[in-house]
Amino acid sequence: MNRINRWKQFGIFALLGILLSWMISCSPNSTPSGSATAGAAEVEFWTMQLEAQFKDYFDQLIAQFEKENPGVKVRWVDVPWADMQSKILTAVSANTAPDVVNLNPDFAAQLAGRNAWLALDDRIGETDKAQYLPNIWKASTLDDKSFGLPWYLSTSITIYNQELLQQAGISQPPTTYEELAQVAKQVKDKTGKYAFFVTVVPEDSAEVLQSMVQMGVTLLDDQGKAAFNTPEGKAAFQYWTDLYQQGLLPKEVLTQGHRRAIDLYQAGETALLTTGPQFLKTIATNAPAIAQASSVAPQITGKTNKKNVAVMNLVIPRNTDQPDAALKFALFVTNNENQLSFAKAANVLPSTIAALEDAYFTQVGADAPALDQARSISAKQMQDAEVLLPSIKDIKELQKIVYDNLQAAMLGEKTVDQAVADAAAEWDER
């Protein structure tokens, strides 16, 4: 599921954004494509690149829903992940949107700011709402208003090469960024290799930006202004700058993305890899010897003990002519039973409390294969997990500003204090 790391790599087409704002504000009562046919309510359901692997699952899911709700028909449309953003922008602006859409909160929040989605707080009872993990529910809110239902989750873990750590005289993988810096030096001194790779390419992974939050940095204040020009923000910039300038990070962290982290780990050139559990299968296929030496541990974090999670959700366009049927179907897709079933099929995590407490996640033996161990570790992390980045429409712009200035500090073009101050000023003045 490479797309989970790429979900955050999006851009908004300015013209479509303007069109969308205008159409939503001026045409609240027009009719979308999900209209009733032959006396039955039709719910049009869009997913993001799931049909190839999970057609049988969704066929059965929809058939069960239609059996329990004989007055409703569901039309399923699967959209390639690369096309979803442009397609849903066009559909919503043209009032031809589906009735239920699979998105991720980062992108959905951009449209929530334009009032594109059905408001859910007055439509969902506390009993239904209480089934979801509270921190995950917050991911689909904007200005304390709920615009989506949580669906499936993915969280990073640490995959580590036991043999390479042993060569460096390290018995346990690091659990904090403070320990990571010590391990990085020891691995480099003892083996000549790097402990890990983390990208600071502005358009790629947000891992470094997330690490700042884990270290105790507040990125933005309540008014959306920069809040990271603080001792904590400077310390986070200093942390990554020191690692780079001390030669403890590969030079290409400035130019290559997260894919390079996987390649280096598979080649035995790094000891640690922060990624999703699903990449264990990739490593086993591409580098069996490395997979044999690999074990798993929790996600590395900072003093906050926060863990990051990637969320997929379901949203309902505000102009749907089937709000009740659409909401009933979205709640059905994301209920405990169906989330657990999909989590098992797709090797992801559910966002409901009861499903996450199933024995499939909790009863994994110490001698179980690494993939099973990873599943258990991921599930346990959900108690501390949350979407660490602010729910704002310009989050990638914030990442670019921070990463550009962090790179300048790494390269010695700016002091850390100047880099932090410039990043904050640039964000506030944009």
TrEMBL record:
Superkingdom assignment: Bacteria
One Pfam family cited in the UniProt record for this chain: SBP_bac_1
InterPro entries: Bact_solute-bd_prot1, SBP
Protein name: Sugar ABC transporter substrate-binding protein
Source organism (scientific name): Leptolyngbya sp. NK1-12
